[in-house]
Amino acid sequence: MDASAAIQDLGQDAKTLIAMGKIGRPHGVQGELRFWPHNGAGRLLCENREIWVGSENGEGSAQVSGLRAYCVRSARRDPKGWLISLDGIDDRDQAAALCGLTWFEKREAFEPLQEGELYLVDLIGCQVRTPSRENMGRLIDVCEAAGNQYLVVQTGKEERLVPARREFIVECDLNARVLTLVDLEGLLQD
To answer: If DSSP codes are grouped into helix, strand and coil, which group holds residue 137?
Structure first.
């Protein structure tokens, strides 16, 4: 879709949008942008796809605003991460206007899950507890650092990073919105 198109009002469909990552600074003078994906291994980072770009006003897909559709002209890796080009973004100034915005995808674009699989984004908002059922807080985000994914758990006034690895997850009940994590000293409490 042409970048000059009016801001899209998706209504109820906006609730099915998932934040895929942040758009960074312009790269060069021809409209290319740095992109910081939440999941660098995702198969949605490819050419000739319609994506949604806008502001994230809450956690995950909670609230989005100022959405516009763009077609991905190119997506490539370089030593510092990802670089993307979007149709209609042809110079550095146009690219700079997108800096700090979020790339969103419709939930339907995600690959179907196999038995026992889940998307980490589905854990956002879950209550986090220990195996002894002690409430430790709420999972507020999922992030990537140094090539690893982490669950961000709000424990009172602090945020704790828990590696998003099977050995740290005891049980996950998405229907009850409860995530049980191992009770290691220093992981969720001091």
So the answer is: strand
- Name the nearest CA neighbour of 102 among 70, 147, 75: 70
Q: Are residues 95 and 137 in the same domain?
A: no
Tens-digit pLDDT string for the chain (190 aa)? 333 333 344 444 555 788 888 899 999 999 999 998 876 656 777 888 888 899 876 554 456 678 899 999 999 988 888 999 999 999 999 999 999 999 888 888 888 888 888 888 889 899 999 999 999 999 998 887 777 888 999 988 899 999 999 899 999 999 999 999 998 776 666 5
In a domain, 115, yes or no: no
Both structure tokens of 91: 């110079």
Write down the pTM of the prediction: 0.68
Which of 75, 109, 143 is the last residue before a domain boundary?
109
Q: Which secondary structure element, helix H or strand E, spans residue 24, and what is its range?
A: strand 17-27
Cα 184 from Cα 161, distance rounded (Å): 13
Count of positions (residues) in the chain: 190
**Does the residue 6 lie in any domain?**
no
**Contact (CB, 8 A) for 135 and 144:** no
Given a contact cutoff of 8 angstroms between Cβ atoms, the answer to whether 52 and 105 are in contact is: yes
| DSSP letters spanning 54-102 | EEE-SSTTS-EEEEEEEEEEEEEEETTEEEEEETT--SHHHHHTTTT-E
